[in-house]
Amino acid sequence: MSSSTTTPVIDFTPEELATLISATREGTASIVKLLNTLNDISSRTGRKWEPLGTFGFQTIFIDFAEPLSTPDQAAQITDRAIADAFSDPTNWSAQL
Length: 96
Hints:
Helix content: 55-70%
Shape: extended
Largest sheet: none
Radius of gyration: 17 Å
Number of strands: 0
């Protein structure tokens, strides 16, 4: 983990800082939960999740997080869409 000793460009209000800290911790915990789930699937199937090409955490954010700000788009994030995104065979190695 890096730390900075430079003067901050932006001074956050206490409320903003509390929200940033909380959201970062929650997001990080969710990423760890996602990776643990993928590791469990790897153990069960003998295949390792290795996203190729354009699928990775940036894609997950673009496809599943960004639309949450728009109710119409959020409704399109179905269980099937998530399952399809993670079950693409090109993102799973043949074996561990």
